[in-house]
């Protein structure tokens, strides 16, 4: 009995390890705020659509930064750490459905693919908006560079993809709520503090590379600024 108690205490102990660096957290919450504003401004219309376009540029910039940081960033931010192949993802899904517990410092395989889906949806939304038109008041900054037929195509994509984006967001919220409420994993807090509770301590080097963050963010910001000026 004493050994069982000790084993329970050992397996129950959790360690707060650093997982999400500051740039990933800023990216996440900026994306949340940006999507919320884009939704509001798109429904509102009128003069606020000028800011709708500007924030659209910023959203594309955020996605570009995340792609860069997914290659050169901190360990758990890299795509290689959470993008798994079909077989690994299927194994995870089968284990999940059977109630098996998995301890992933970063995203689990399904969560990793959800990140890709959300990023792709935001990119398609922003890119298609560059060529879109409502035929009344607002035209995308690159509208004049394409034919009317091409603009109509991108406008259709812009409207259709937003429904896809909303569906992806809904799935994401449901998954977070499941982990937060059912599995008692404070994921929202983790995305605020950058730390996650794990059953094993970590020796992964999570020292922030602020220089790489600054260079990456500055490059993207300069690109977005030039794009606004040129269009």
UniProtKB/TrEMBL annotation:
Organism: Neptunomonas qingdaonensis
Primary subcellular site in the record, as a coarse category: membrane
Gene3D superfamilies recorded: Transmembrane di-heme cytochromes, Chain C
Transmembrane region(s): 22-41, 53-72, 110-131, 160-181, 210-228
Keyword list, A-Z: Cell membrane, Membrane, Transmembrane, Transmembrane helix
Subcellular location: Cell membrane
Domain of life: Bacteria
Name the record gives this protein: Cytochrome b
Gene Ontology biological-process entries: respiratory electron transport chain
A single GO cellular-component term on record: plasma membrane
Membrane topology qualifier: Multi-pass membrane protein
InterPro entries for this protein: Cyt_b561_bac/Ni-Hgenase, Di-haem_cyt_TM, Hydrogenase_cytochrome
Domain annotation Cytochrome b561 bacterial/Ni-hydrogenase: ranges: 19-194
MF-aspect GO terms: electron transfer activity; heme binding
Pfam families per UniProt: Ni_hydr_CYTB (PF01292)
């Amino acid at each position: 009995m004493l050994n069982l108690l000790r084993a329970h205490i050992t397996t129950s102990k959790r360690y707060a390890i650093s997982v999400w660096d500051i740039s990933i957290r800023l990216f996440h919450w900026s994306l949340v705020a940006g999507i919320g504003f884009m939704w509001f401004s798109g429904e509102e219309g009128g003069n606020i659509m000028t800011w709708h376009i500007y924030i659209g540029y910023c959203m594309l910039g955020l996605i570009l930064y995340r792609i860069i940081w997914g290659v050169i960033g901190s360990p758990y931010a890299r795509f290689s750490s959470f993008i798994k192949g079909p077989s690994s993802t299927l194994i995870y899904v089968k284990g999940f459905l059977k109630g098996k517990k998995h301890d992933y410092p970063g995203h689990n395989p399904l969560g990793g693919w959800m990140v890709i889906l959300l990023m792709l949806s935001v990119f398609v939304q922003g890119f298609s908006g560059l060529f879109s038109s409502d035929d009344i008041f607002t035209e995308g900054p690159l509208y004049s560079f394409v034919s009317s037929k091409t603009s109509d195509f991108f406008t259709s994509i812009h409207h259709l993809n937003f429904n896809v984006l909303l569906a992806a967001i809904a799935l994401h919220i449901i998954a977070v709520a499941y982990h937060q409420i059912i599995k008692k994993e404070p994921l929202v807090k983790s995305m605020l503090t950058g730390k996650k509770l794990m059953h094993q301590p970590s020796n992964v080097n999570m020292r922030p590379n602020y220089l790489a963050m600054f260079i990456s963010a500055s490059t993207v910001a300069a690109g977005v600024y030039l794009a606004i000026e040129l269009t």
